[in-house]
């Protein structure tokens, strides 16, 4: 049929996402993107726009895949914010250990290269990080802690998440990464327990 694309757009987007994930934005050349997707520059531009437009679509693709998993994990333990955070980290560690995908995290990789990104892409990455934080913050909402404390804990959890991605790219073992998440969950639990105890004492 005239004008019909002769390739699977979703598959090509997934392959491009892997290139950005593995190499980072700056080193994801059009040649590398073309080799991974099997598309020439003209077809890449025709299907996805320029490199920045393709990068934005890859960020959204990544966020849709893993964001759904994060939401499911965080929502699976209503009334138990510590268990919700543990489940969140379990998803992250599972992604890191998955040999079928690049090491680390596309969002963390992109955040680390923010200075190489155009303003629109930088805003996009920061928005995705904030979405992660909002998910965790919502899972903590059942706690009796003050909003400021919960905001700080949500930011802490996301900071640990990003650190896991960086450590994994540096070759840190699964056992070491799990020790990091255990300490993070202990910090969350101890903070919430301390606040609950203070609230009882003040009642």
UniProtKB/TrEMBL annotation:
This is TetR-family transcriptional regulator. One of its GO terms (molecular function) is DNA binding. SUPFAM superfamilies: Homeodomain-like, Tetracyclin repressor-like, C-terminal domain. It comes from the Bacteria. InterPro entries: DNA-bd_HTH_TetR-type_CS, Homeodomain-like_sf, HTH_TetR, Tet_transcr_reg_TetR-rel_C_sf. Coiled coil: none annotated. The keyword Cytoplasm does not apply. Residues 29-48 bind DNA. Pfam families: TetR_N. Residues 6-66 form the HTH tetR-type domain. Keywords: DNA-binding, Transcription, Transcription regulation. It comes from Streptomyces avermitilis (strain ATCC 31267 / DSM 46492 / JCM 5070 / NBRC 14893 / NCIMB 12804 / NRRL 8165 / MA-4680).
